Amino acid sequence: MVINLPLQQGAQYVWILSDGKNSYESLFKIMPTEARDQLTKDLQKLEQDLQSNGATDEAIAVAQANYFSQKNLWSDALQRLYSVENPSVEVVQAQQQLMAELCRQGS
User: Fold this and answer.
1) Which residues contact 57 (CB under 8 A, 6 or more apart)?
2) What pLDDT digit, counting tens, does each position of 55-90 carry?
3) pTM to 2 decimal places
């Protein structure tokens, strides 16, 4: 039986990521609402700034993934990179590099 429940703020979880050779495990908690709201504002501003400079959707996704990485929000960084439809070779390489780096850190 599989039970799907939403993650609860304040509870601790384990995130496990594997590239087939190595794996990465990290404990995490759901971020408080205020911090999440600030991230949302920062990401919206980043997107607006990039759009005003003519950036593509793909470039915006990469910039947002980098923002998440700088904050050690690895699952968000991966999710943003993998959200790109028809990714370029550069984005596929960024996806693979981030996965490999995380799995190296965990081994």
Assistant:
1) 84
2) 999 999 999 999 999 998 888 999 999 999 999 999
3) 0.77
